[in-house]
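Why does residue order matter? Because the sequence determines the fold. Keep that principle in mind as you read this record.
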Amino acid sequence: MPHKYTLKLAHINDTHSHFDASRIKFSLTHAGKQFDVYSHTGGYARIQHQINHARDQAKQQKQEFLFLHGGDSFQGTLYFRQFKGVANAHLLNQLKPDAMVLGNHEIDAGNAPVLAFLNNIQFPLLAGNMDLSREDASKESPMSGHPRLLDYDSQTGRAKVLIKQIQDKPLAIVGITLDQMAQIARPDPDTYFINAIETTRKTIEHLKSQGVDHIIVLSHLGLDQDRLLADTVDGISLIVGGHSHTLQGDFRPLGLSATTYGERVNSTPILHAGKHAETLGLADIEFDANGRVTRLEGHNYFMLDQQFILESAEGVAPEDYTAIRDQLEQHPGILWQQEDPHIIRIITSEYRPAIAAMDKQVLGFLPRDLIHTRLPSKSLPHGSEIAPWVCKSIYHEAKRIHPSVDFALHNAGGVRQSLSKGKLTLADVVGRLLPFDLPLVKYQILGLYLFDALESAINSATNNSVTGTGAGSFPYTYGLKYCYDGRKPQGERILTLEILCPNSTLEKWIAVNKAQHYVGVSSAYTASGKEGYHPLLKAQWQRPLEELTLPNAFIRFMKREQTLEQELPPQVSYTSHREAAN
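Structure:
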């Protein structure tokens, strides 16, 4: 009988400093009635409890245990804004991951915060295609040669590899991150990112030549690029990924999406675990002697409050609550709240007091949930419900100071999460919705380059004719209305582009003239030309709005408006290149 090599794997990704449990909404049906379920899920204390339980199970079952983080621990909440990476390192050390891959948000502010993180963590950080061979040795924050960093070996052209054991076999973990890092983050100029696929291929070929067949790629590439990697490079046993915030599993009974947990490409399973520490991936895996996964059983798990709020337009009876709880308990992706007291003590005593005041400062009220999604979908054909409000806020606040502003343009990735109905606090805005304190930039640009910028950004977000850096580049607007058809030839995909007529008392749209100049406002990140927005660099001029930042504009707008009650007319029309032609 062939020998089986078994592993219990836990994985998280894109946690973005969400140390506390996050609000969650499910939609369920019972007896012909529709119910909204409001609860909280995840957070580090609940994850720690489940990790400890999984470790104990693995020990009892004589399995190897592995806990991996798919990158992007940084940014996301007030905890990061207040403590930068210090709290992240402290709390991750308590969780004890076996390895974490470098995410793009770790390097948003250059190499120095990554070095500080490396100095504080007690586990290896993997970045097997990050080349530090040309690093300036005299700089204040050199990372080359750091004992906890497994980066690129420029002499061999391969990734440095973490080796663990699975019974009598070596198990290699290869960390691979985005090779377009300079387009999406701010690595130091002496830091280079080598092609992810070629680095992985060379590394795996070498491992195979050394008799290492059990190989996990820990990636921060996003699901689409993980699929491409698995399809292109043979010999990968398993990919554990992040970056795209993909929640795998069938959560349709809860009103969410369905994506296969551990989907296989070229016989390689790919695992992702959502975002924001809302869920934890747990899998029991069997390998054969050649490193091939022969069995993978597992799921992503929400970790919910013991109690929840139930609402329905048709009213809620006690028996409805019982029936909905039964439905939740029967779903394979639901666990109930059990928290690690040690993590709770650390958060409540060392970190939460510093941010509590912002949670008490109410800016306004929301009459309904506003969902944020980076890309349009069947359920949200015009995309995000909150990003257009962010665009409207920067448009109006910039226009109050500079009346010449014609439009606002912002990338989806700069808006970080949905907003729940009810009070909106300062903490919600600067800690969760808009945690990047980005300056705003005013610029004058030809209509021609607006066409180019919008198409290029959407092509990048959807990997249409180009290899993009993720869906975060998808453009949202205010005062600028566009129609994109991804099935058209490159350069012809913006079918219509209209601008709000500035001198009309009624809402009136006029076609953008490619030969005319317009004045726009965007974040400094978008205006810098990253993630497909390079046509914006052809602006006649760019000037910082020193008195306005992205979150500051939204805060001012909310204080003035008090609510986001009205429906914004859609300004995004999108047809995917994957959609069949009529």
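The first strand starts at residue 5 and ends at 12.
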